[in-house]
Amino acid sequence: MSLELPNSALLVLGRLASEGPMTPKTIIEKVGLAPRTISFALRTLVREKVIRKTPNLADMRQPLYHINMERVKELQLRFDSGQISQIPTAFRPAGHSFNR
Q: pTM to 2 decimals?
């Protein structure tokens, strides 16, 4: 099984890794991509179970997106064994390249 993520998803994942949980609105502001592109990236990451969507108790209109660390650890193991060819910089062990 191969994991292929669009560049927009990698950007979003990197930002969530560096800054923690965020709302879609905050992600749009920080990443600087179009709302439609961010929505696609978030849907892709949720579908692949790399991030989780949770209710935002401060504003129920804007969910929070969190990194699913269990899934990330699984992806790291698969990357190290050569089963996937890309993994975001924030999760790559030192010395690995983006593409194999």
A: 0.75
